[in-house]
Amino acid sequence: MLDFLASATPAIFGFPVASGVVLASGKSWKTLRQFSLTTTRDFGMGKQSIEKLIQNETQHLVEELWKSQGKHWSGQGMKALTEESSDPEREFHHKSLLTVVQLFFAGTEISSTTLCCALLLLLKNPDVLGHYCVPHINSALHDSQYFEKPDITYPGHFLDVEGNFRKWEAFIAFSMGVALANGERWRILRRFSLTILRDFGMGKRSIEERIQEEAGFLLEELRKTKGAPTEPTFFLSRTVSNVISSVVFGRRFDYEDKMFLKLLQMINGSFIEMSTPWAQLYDMYSGIMQYLPGRHNRVYYLIEELKDFIASRVKINEESLDPQNPRDFIDCFLIKMHQDKNNPHTEFNLKNLVLTTLNLFFAGTETVSSTLRYGFLLLMKHPEVEAKIHEEIDQVIGPHRIPSVDDRVKMPYTDAVIHEIQRLTDIVPMGVPHNVIRDTNFRGYILPKGTDVFPLLGSVLKDPKYFRYPDAFYPQHFLDEKGRFKKNEAFVPFSSGKRICLGEAMARMELFLYFTSVLQNFSLRPLVPPADIDITPKISGFGNIPPTYELCLVAR
Ligand code: HEM
Questions:
Q1: What is the CATH number of the domain that holds 457?
Q2: Which end of the chain is more exposed for a tag (fewer CB within 10 A), N or C?
Q3: Where does this protein have coiled-coil stretches (predicted)?
């Protein structure tokens, strides 16, 4: 399943932002899916026609310029290239471009301003006219790491020693790291990451103990709230993040650690930003959006800061590295880098180290903590479900013993509820965007090789063929008539196929242990009557962001 797909680098993860496309559940996904496919095709297949239109318009512009006969010219004519004309004879009424122009009225101004700036720069640097150069006028590209002279017009940035145009890595920095890499790079990084995560206990006893210990710290914190209204976001992300942190950084962070809280705020902020309509527009129209100022740029800076933090951890590890005693994921990667140092084609380089660590840290924090946060809200809306979980916990675990993964098989109801929470909340609704690696026939549509596709997981998670009440919270979806746990092949919150979530085993363990530990010790009390609890996501895009809420945790 899904073997024809590779990961696409979503524009939003590339320059300068992160990811998202319009999302829906139930019936509306069909309409949206159709729309996404059509738009992708319009943009993929329409390239030549748009090129022709631009060539036409360029001719009109050149004619205008001839008319100026070398006299003073202000540059305003540049707008002709980007403005929609009222002349019905002119072909600039192409539907897809019109849509773009309507959506981004600013696009006119930005494109023409870019061209004007380019001309101005050429005037200031007449020697440049002899070269083949592409102007990139954007402050975020002024990175001295990539560009020798970041703040001056220097076409050499885009030319190799033979004067040929070269594409800079700065433009594709996010196609590295396991989550967004493809081909051999992805295979190597995925195999390596899985091996190291398993070595450090993923899916095994040792990580279970780590989670139990961390859940203990969480319970202590929650007790301190003494049943007062509490906003749970960072209580949950701190504890969950410490589990993956102990694998990638070899340590947990103190809950009072301000830097840790800042990191979590950045991760949470990026997940939200990736899910805004801005991000969705960026994904669909990155060609234009990358030149526009606006909210879609925020996540770029957040991710850069997270990368800086990881780079600083790498430095600390490097300074105290003992190849015989790797302490964490970073150490293991560094050892591999040293072993491969004479191999110019190795994937074990600093960039892949930083980005793969970021992938794990990010994915290992936000997904699980958002699911817990959403789950507690759903349980408050359905107190009868919470009551049944309490009952099962009391029967199987009792009030004192720490919950363990072995309890799961004896707790089918709790297991079914956790599955139902994941099904309904659909926390990563379109997985990670993919890219077809060969021409693919999909339900009668030909998707040409290279087409970006967004596998909307909600289309499966809410498929009425598999779930009786697709849009309702109904734990019985995962129970048979005798109350035993019932698997369902349409349960795909971790996606499906070769790129299926790499941290699934860890996530499943965490969800079970956190839900049971919290509910063993507390009853959840909403601040409003259950009927008034709104479970609509705060934002829906790359992620389904749970609504912000407060609750009281009353000791049992
Ligand atoms: C409730 C928790 C989680 C959910 C719902 C979830 C969901 C997903 C989904 C939908 C994908 C995209 C798969 C695709 O490309 O088709 C994914 C990928 C990934 N996840 Fe998770 N995830 C969760 C927890 C975790 C955890 C705890 C980790 C870290 C240990 C993790 C690490 C990753 C990585 C590294 C990838 C990229 C895999 C690749 O491209 O080969 N995830 N996840």
A1: 1.10.630.10
A2: N
A3: none
